[in-house]
Task: structure prediction
Amino acid sequence: MGFPEGFLWGGATAANQCEGGYDEGGRGLANVDVAPAGPDRRAVVSGEMKMMAFDPDHYYPAQTAIDMYHTYRDDIALFAEMGFKTYRCSIAWSRIFPKGDEEEPNEAGLAYYEDLFRCCQEHGIEPLVTITHFDCPMHLIEAYGGWRSRKLIGFYKRLVRTLFTRYKGLVHYWLTFNEINMIFHLPWMGAGIVFEEGEGHEAVEWAAVHHELVASAWATKIAHEVDPENKVGCMLAAGAYYPFSCRPEDVRAAQLDTQRELSLIDVQARGYYPRSIQRMLERKGIMLDITDEDRQVLAENTVDFVSFSYYSTRCSAAPTTDAPRTQGNAFAGAKNPYLKTSEWGWAIDPLGFRITMNELYDRYQKPLFVVENGLGAKDELVPDGKGSYTVEDDYRIDYLRQHIEVLRDTITEDGVEVWGYTTWGPIDLISAGTGQMSKRYGFIYVDRDDEGNGTLKRYRKKSFYWYQKVIGSNGADLD
Ligand code: BGP
Result:
């Protein structure tokens, strides 16, 4: 027994990390554009440092990224050559509504994505579209404070109705918000939040959470109304929390972390806030502005499937535990001494992938979709002996092979229902966490460096041919 027939193999990107063309086709400025590479990035993306426009002292990699705004037809052809069944991409909101609060959409932006989706369909590739992958039009941040404002729900409803109507029949799989729990970790990316001096961060984050959850439920409702064939998913930055030890205090710390991270998916998949979270908010004096209409739309419009990114598990220790600490994928926690890490310090844990999927499937009883997984690593371009260049990326193949084996076992042995698997960054793109190009995930190498130099030419890596074989055999041939 192997992967089910029709399993959706593919790869995933985000508009701001690959498109570039930040001021073309009438596009408006967005939060993601002004996230610089370099040491200030962390402070900006976590909402601690105000950066509302470009300044001459920083380099902003999203301005050009890998220029996919112009090369998408060639790049999608390369995905098709690997045999992709699906391609996960995202919409840049400010291409469709440049300021975010206009009455009428920008036709150039709509036409751009229409051609991109048509191109996918011509290759037999099913688009899987993230409506919001970390981007928010800058005007919505300046005028309303980003997702801390309830007003954004209305603007988002207008955005999604426009998308569902225009792309009816072209797109059937939608994700409302990428890694919705990232609001707690990178609030500028997750919700366009920049904190004011002295304000309580948690209260602002939870207000934004509630607004995104309500917006997500409206999107689910509208998607189903416009086309009953539409399937809508939530999206979690996943990774089970292990207790650092079996000391009850550490186990309790892991439980609290799990409750907080999963609470948003609880709302999207079950339709209401879990009691533990309601009580936690009450204890902290955080009052959510939940209307009767909010309650109703949340309850009646749960998602069709649960999608998630998986890079590693996490490890929780009580404050009183003397544990070494780490910062992996924006998630601070204890360092797991049993796991090796990537060059960027992210723990590598294939078995944790199985543990995570079982946890999510047991809890929600809804189909899962793995929409990100992969290894960020440095690559070296070498001659391929045929007059071109390649990368001998056996480390990437090893990582993916181990995870795909675990995915197969989770489906066949544990009975977990999984619709598909898209690796992160099938073509090298800029890192969300660091803004670097040198942190590469792709099967396709892009000639560009961390300072923006390079020809932007594409080269097939060794993993390109390996993934082609994996997809061609529906996961049976992983050698
Ligand atoms: C996820 C994001 C992606 C992607 C990925 C890898 O959190 O959804 O946008 O970037 O992580 O992270 P990084 O780019 O920091 O290596």
Observations:
- The two ends are 17 Å apart (CA to CA).
